[in-house]
Amino acid sequence: MFHCSRMIFFSLLSIASLFADLSPVHAQDQKKTRLRVEGEPHVVWTGGSSGTYADSAQAVVRNVGSVEAEDVRVELELPGGGVIVLSGPSSLSPNDRATYTWNSYERVVGMGKVVPRLSCANCYR
Prior knowledge:
The chain is of the alpha+beta class.
C-alpha cells in the first residue's frame, strides 16, 4: 500500500511539473519576437576637404517571430562610433519586412562597415 501511494505521489508530481512550464513567465516568452536585418545596410558616403560624411542610409528589417514587434528601433553604428537612428514603422507584423531610412549629414572617421542595432519593446534580449 505504501509503495503504491508513493508511486501515485511521484506520478502526480511529474504531471505537476509539466504544467509548471505553462506558468506566466513562459507565457510571457511566447509574446516575444526577433528582428533581423536582410542583407547589408546601405550607406551613401561623401567626402571632401572637410571630411567624410554619411549622407543617407537604409536597412531592410524583418520580423522573424510569430508575434507583432512593437516600438521598433533601428540604429546604425558608423565607423568611429557615431550612431544614427533610422526612421520607419514603429511596429512590424510577423514575417513582415520594412525599409528604415535616414537622410541627413553625419561626419564620420571614414567609410567602412556599419553595424546595425535592432530593438523593440517585446524583442528577446
